[in-house]
Specification:
Blueprint (H helix, E strand, L loop, with lengths): L2 H20 L5 H8 L4 H5 L1 H16 L12 H15 L14 E2 L4 H11 L3 E6 L2 E7 H10 L13 H4 L9 E5 L4 H15 L5 E5 L10 E5 L4 H7 L1
Parallel strand pairs: 1-2, 4-5
Antiparallel strand pairs: 2-3, 5-6
C-alpha cells in the first residue's frame, strides 16, 4: 500500500468516526467545522486535521494523471492515525482510580495533621456516617488555625473536622464524575468551575455512577497536583 493509499484510508476512517460521534452523515469539512470548537481532541489538533482535509481534496479532486501533486509522508499519516485513535478511544478518568482516604466529621485535628504528614495528601472527602459533606483541604486548616492563632493553648485533640470544614471556602470546589468520563470532558468541566469559583483549588471525585451515596462510592480522586499528568494525557 502506497503512502497515498494509507493516507486516504486513515482520512476516511477519521471521517467515519466523526460521523458516528455526531450521528450525522455530513461531509468531512462540515463535521470538522462543527467539532473544532466543541470537541477537545479535534480542537487540539485542528491545524493537522485541516491540513489533512486540504491535502485530501488536492489529491482526490485535483489529481494529475502523470504524477501526484503532493505525497503525504509516513510521519503525517502516523500523526493522523494517532488523532483518530485518540478521538475514537479517548483517555478516561479511570486512570486516576486509587484508594482514597476519607475523614469522619468527628475525627480530631490531630488525626488530620497526622494523615497529612504520613500520606502527603492535603484534600480529604468528609463523611458523617455515609453522608458526604464536602472536601477538607489544607486551605481550610490554614484558615482555621489563623482564626485561632491568639489562643494561648491549642489542644489538637479538642477540635474536630466538623469545626474546621466551615472555614474551608474551597471545600465545596469539587466535581463528582463517572470513571468512564473522557479526560477532555473533565478538563472542560474543570475550566468552567475554575472560572466560576475564581481559583484552581479544584478536586475531582471519581465514582462508578457519577454520584456519592456512601464513602465506598469514591473510587479515585484528581487533585491540583495531578493536573500536569491530566494535561499530558489529553
Amino acid at each position: 500500500m502506497t503512502n497515498l493509499d494509507e493516507f486516504i484510508s486513515e482520512f476516511n476512517q477519521l471521517h467515519e468516526a466523526m460521523k458516528r460521534y455526531t450521528k450525522r452523515d455530513d461531509s468531512f469539512g462540515s463535521l470538522f467545522y462543527q467539532l473544532k470548537d466543541k470537541h477537545a481532541v479535534i480542537k487540539q489538533h485542528q491545524d493537522t486535521i485541516d491540513m489533512a482535509r486540504q491535502l485530501r481534496n488536492l489529491l482526490i479532486h485535483e489529481k494529475k494523471d502523470t504524477f501526484n501533486i503532493a505525497e503525504p509522508t509516513a510521519e503525517f499519516i502516523d500523526s493522523l492515525k494517532k488523532i483518530r485513535l485518540q478521538f475514537e478511544n479517548p483517555a478516561t478518568v479511570s486512570q486516576f482510580k486509587k484508594q482514597v482516604i476519607s475523614l469522619n466529621e468527628d475525627d480530631t485535628l490531630k488525626k488530620v495533621l497526622e494523615l497529612i504528614e504520613q500520606h502527603h495528601v492535603s484534600q480529604y472527602p468528609v463523611f458523617s456516617g455515609q453522608k458526604f459533606h464536602g472536601i477538607l483541604t489544607d486551605n481550610g486548616i490554614a484558615n482555621w488555625l489563623a482564626a485561632h492563632m491568639n489562643e494561648e493553648l491549642l489542644r489538637l485533640t479538642d477540635y474536630h473536622v466538623k469545626d474546621i470544614l466551615p472555614k474551608d471556602e474551597k471545600g465545596s470546589s469539587y466535581l463528582v464524575v463517572r470513571e468512564d468520563l473522557p479526560l477532555y470532558e473533565v478538563e472542560h468541566k474543570m475550566m468552567n468551575l475554575i472560572n466560576e469559583k475564581g481559583h484552581s483549588k479544584l478536586v475531582i471525585l471519581i465514582t462508578q455512577t457519577g454520584s456519592i451515596n456512601k464513602r465506598e462510592d469514591i473510587t479515585g480522586i484528581i487533585t491540583p497536583g495531578d493536573m500536569p499528568k491530566l494535561i499530558e494525557s489529553l
